[in-house]
Specification:
This protein is mostly helical. Helices cover about 65% and strands about 0% of the residues. The longest helix is centred in the middle third of the chain and has 27 residues. The radius of gyration is 16 Å and the shape is elongated.
């Protein structure tokens, strides 16, 4: 990656900010799962697809944040 395309990072997030983001992501993940179940009961295939996609994405966010915090039992989020 060349210097011109490297991201600028401050590395100034606190552990508290990361914990808060984890909490928020977990709540949103649960909400998408609930929405999926509601769409499933209503036979709303488009809603099911959207909610499943967002739920899965947030699972990755949650795992990555847990990995960042060094949570026991959380392996490499890329696997």
């Amino acid at each position: 990656m060349s210097k011109a395309t490297e991201p600028v990072r401050s590395y100034d997030r606190t552990w508290e900010e990361i914990e808060t983001m984890l909490d928020r992501a977990t709540v949103k993940m649960i909400q998408w799962k609930e929405w999926y179940e509601e769409c499933k009961s209503n036979k709303d295939k488009q809603g099911m697809k959207e909610s499943a996609r967002n739920h899965k994405a947030l699972q990755g966010v949650v795992k990555t944040l847990k990995w960042t915090l060094g949570e026991e039992g959380v392996s490499d989020p890329l696997n």
